[in-house]
Amino acid sequence: MAAPASKPVPVPTRETQPYWEGCKQHELRIQKCPACGHHQFYPRLYCTACMSDRVEWVKASGRGKVLSFTIVYRPVTQAFAADVPYVVALITLDEGPQLMSNVVGCPPEKVQIGMPVEVTFEDWTEDISVPKFKPV
Question: How many structural domains does the chain have?
Fold first, then answer.
């Protein structure tokens, strides 16, 4: 019998390294523009609101709400076969940005739009921890 496939591990880039360093410390980081106060995610070199190039990394509250979700019953690859069924959700953080993640810590059928959630982390390797969200 073949060995189970392993999940693809994110590879940090110059732009995303501060994000992944935060995740490793179980801290959700997003960018904030000191010029206009706008929070953003995914990482960019410029503020998407005012185009300032002075974006900074800040610790997010880690709290948000489920904006939309789907329940996955068929794994995209064998690496995720043991996880089905699982929830892929679009989370709106309290700071405003949205990110895609999984909702864990409850049965998939209990997830609802508008459900308050908070970040938790899954350590995949010594260097990579992946943020997921659990009900509050």
Answer: 1
Residue 92 inside a domain? The answer is yes
Reported as a single tens digit per residue, the pLDDT across 2-29 is 455 688 999 999 999 999 999 999 999 9
pTM: 0.92
Q: Which helix (H) or strand (E) holds 58?
A: strand 56-59
The CA distance from 61 to 49, in Å, is 21
Q: Based on the number of CB atoms within 10 Å of its own CB, is 102 exposed (0-12), middle (13-18) or buried (19 or more)?
A: buried
Q: Are 103 and 66 in contact (CB under 8 A)?
A: yes
Encode 82-114 in three state secondary structure.
HHCCEEEEEEEECCCCEEEEEECCCCHHHCCCC
